[in-house]
Amino acid sequence: MSIVVLSGGVGGARFLRGLVDVVAAEDITIVGNVGDDVEVLGLHVSPDLDSILYALAGVADEERGWGRADETWHALEAAARLGGEAWFRLGDRDLGLHLVRTQALRSGEHLSTVTHRLAQRLRIRAGLLPATDDRLRTWIETPAGSFPFQEWFVARGHRDEVDGVRFEGATEAEPAPGVLDAIESAELILIAPSNPYVSVWPTLAVREIRDALELRGCPAVAVSPLVGGRAVKGPADRMLARLGGGTTAAHVADCYLGLIDALVIDERDAADADAVASLGIRPVVAQTLMTDAEARARLAQATLQGALALR
Ligand code: GDP
Ligand code: CA
User: Fold this and answer.
1) Which of 150, 168, 193, 283 is most buried, by CB atoms within 10 Å?
2) What is the average pLDDT value for the chain, to the nearest integer?
3) How far is CA 231 from CA 10, 254, 289, 292, 298, in A?
4) 197 Cα: distance to centroid of ligand 2 (angstroms)
């Protein structure tokens, strides 16, 4: 069964690890968020694509939640000592990837092409596509001003409340080669338990991707990033409260109206099921906390079962 998964970084990568345990990885095409991409020390960093690459290659640091395991930080420390920027944490092993990608982009290669090559080198069998090869950048509007995503998230520790999100370049951005084909021929579309506003909306801001999802000919199922009304990690709950008006599963469903047929919600949010259903979206109650490999696979399985029930 061909499956397309829209994914952000950490939550998306955790979910994908479970998914490749229960379906053939070759059947999966991941469409990754590029709104978080950033230039650091002259290097092009795609944090969400990299979280997915490292997770599926089995080299991610699980405790830290981002970057690579067995990481050291000598290059960044040396750069800092020389007055270079060090606000964005890049480990030595991680830097290897950014060097290769940046060189490829400078020589005129597209992000999708170099991403494909990196995935092959890491022996990843699922397809991984950036949403677009064009420049698309998330901006965060806060009471303290407007910031590029990583400046708000990393440099300012996402402490500012969010009044709005904006996706620079989205209007002109074209889907990366393969994205529309994958959506049009998919038998199932999934949205990972990622932050709706900053991990999924940037991809949905690409007009042709959004249109293809609205016109889909197969079921689409999202997984809520909330457990008991709270984000497992990061600012998704605070953003939902302020931008969406609340932190129930229905508020998550509201982020994807017209784009999904079912929403997997945690057992601790089961009381929200009726509110989700009243939006015309079928609630699927499951254990969604991905604490280990078994829990990840169980969530993937519950999501697939929820999708089958829609047929
Ligand atoms: P980022 O791009 O690295 O910020 O990652 P994502 O947007 O893909 O994922 C962040 C979201 O993942 C957060 O809102 C978390 O609540 C969610 N998340 C992380 N771990 C889990 C989990 O075990 N279960 C569920 N349901 N959500 C999770
Ligand atoms: Ca991200």
Assistant:
1) 193
2) 97
3) 12, 16, 11, 18, 19
4) 10
Q: What is the CATH number of the domain that holds 175?
A: 3.40.50.10680
Residue 48 Cα to ligand 2 midpoint, Å, equals: 5
pLDDT of residue 76: 98
Q: What are the tens digits of pLDDT across the range 275-297? A: 999 999 999 999 999 999 999 99
The pLDDT, as a whole number, for residue 273 is 98
Per DSSP bridges, beta strands 282-286 and 145-148 are: unpaired
Number of domains in the chain: 1
Neighbours of 109 (CB within 10 A): 15
Distance 33 CA to ligand 2 centre (A): 7
In Å, how far are 5, 57, 112, 147 from 20, measured between CA atoms? 12, 11, 21, 35
Ligand 1 residue neighbourhood (C-beta within 6 Å): 8-12, 14, 48, 51, 192-195, 199, 224-225, 227, 231-234, 236, 288-290
Among the atoms of ligand 1, which is closest to the Cα of residue 237? 14
CA–centroid distance, 147 to ligand 2, in Å, is: 15
Token couple for 191: 């949205």
Q: Running DSSP on this structure, what letter comes out for residue 167? A: E
- Rounded to whole angstroms, the Cα distance separating 138 from 147 reads 9
Q: Which domain covers residue 74, as residue numbers?
A: 3-136+170-308
Strand partners, 132: 175
Q: Return the pLDDT at 65.
A: 85
